[in-house]
Design brief:
The chain is of the alpha+beta class. The protein folds into two domains: 59 residues; 94 residues, Ferric Hydroxamate Uptake Protein, Chain A, domain 1 (Beta Complex), CATH 2.170.130. The protein is built from two helices and eight strands, in the order αββαββββββ. The longest helix has 55 residues.
């Protein structure tokens, strides 16, 4: 064999190797990209679902508000006050709950009517948190998941 033929064969062989390696590399790269996408879908999707579950479980608090024979369940943000929960319930037109309050700059909000029933002379709307008479105003008292706020008309 002549030197030219050997060079030609080596050249063709190198071109074939490079072509196959590019094809193999491209397939591997595509396969890698596909695998990454699959992995992302497998990892990201459950994480997204978990976030939405966490949002319900950890980013909201279930609180019960009782007024006479009526009981209302409401989901509120962590760190919410009794007033925030009542306001959210009041804004839900389907809840059947309403209240009116007056704000005093030094004391906070004072509830003077619930579900259309105003306080009467000598009797005021007072609330209990988990069965204990509240020691602070509705706009100051923070609630947590599972708390029960019970409203009663009493004198003080």
């Amino acid at each position: 064999m002549t030197y030219k033929k050997i060079n030609k064969i080596v050249f063709i062989f190198l071109v074939m190797i490079l072509s196959f390696s590019n094809v193999a590399f491209a397939k591997t790269k595509n396969k890698s990209i596909i695998q990454k996408n699959v992995i992302k879908k497998e990892i990201v999707k459950p994480t997204e679902e978990k976030k939405s579950i966490d949002k319900v479980d950890k980013n909201t608090e279930s609180v019960k508000i009782e007024v006479g024979d009526n009981s209302y369940q409401i989901m509120v943000d962590p760190g919410s006050t009794v007033y925030n929960a009542m306001e959210k319930l009041n804004n839900d037109k389907n809840s059947g709950f309403s209240f009116h309050s007056k704000e005093y700059s030094s004391l906070g909000n004072f509830v003077d009517s619930i579900n259309g029933v105003p306080g009467t002379p000598g009797k005021y709307w007072l609330y209990y948190l988990d069965g204990k008479k509240a020691s602070m105003g509705v706009s100051k008292n923070k609630i947590k998941s599972g708390d029960v706020v019970t409203w009663k008309q009493e004198s003080f």
